[in-house]
Amino acid sequence: MSSSPYLNTLEAIEDEISRLLEKRTRIDQRLTQLKTTADSLRSLLDVPTREEGLDVQIDRTVSDLGITNAIKKVLFSSKIPLSAPEIKSGLESIVVDLSNYANAGAVIHNTLTRLEKQRQVVRVQNPAGQTVAYTLDSMYKRLFEL
User: Fold this and answer.
1) What is the pLDDT of residues 21-55, one digit of tens each?
2) What is the reported pLDDT for 1?
């Protein structure tokens, strides 16, 4: 069955998806770096922010991820499990606007709980049974890589 044309097509599609996601991640990271530099220069030079400039488009692109996908992106990008505060910092570093939420921490925790129920996220607990971190489920992470 490994020589099936359908299997070959599936493998080719999965390879392309993986390459495109890697490219998108690099582009998103570069956009965030450039926006941070532009914001710093704007502040240094005392130049006002453009209303509908590139920086606004960058913010929209990154914030269009939605909180769930943004959390998954932060977890996917990390080599180690992350605590909820570390996930929050990761969200802020990729320019996810958390100011829309009255309690961003609660939103993050609720999203992580839902993702755990969907078996996309795994809780990491200490010997006392307390949750100390979260990571993507290994099976889901492989799918997310595609």
Assistant:
1) 777 767 776 777 777 788 788 888 888 766 555 55
2) 47
Q: Which two tokens stand for residue 29?
A: 């990271």
More confident residue, 78 or 57: 78
Q: Provide the greatest CA pair distance for the chain.
A: 64
Q: Are 22 and 14 in contact (CB under 8 A)?
A: no
* Residue scoring higher pLDDT (121 or 99): 121
In terms of C-beta distances under 8 Å and separation of at least 24 residues, what long-range contacts does 116-122 make, across chains too? Answer: 120/72, 121/72, 121/75
Q: Which residues contact 64 (CB under 8 A, 6 or more apart)?
A: none
How far does CA 124 lie from the centroid of its chain?
A: 19
* CA atoms of 100 and 20, how far apart (whole Å): 30
Q: Torsion over CA of 122, 60, 90 and 25, rounded to 10 degrees?
A: 80
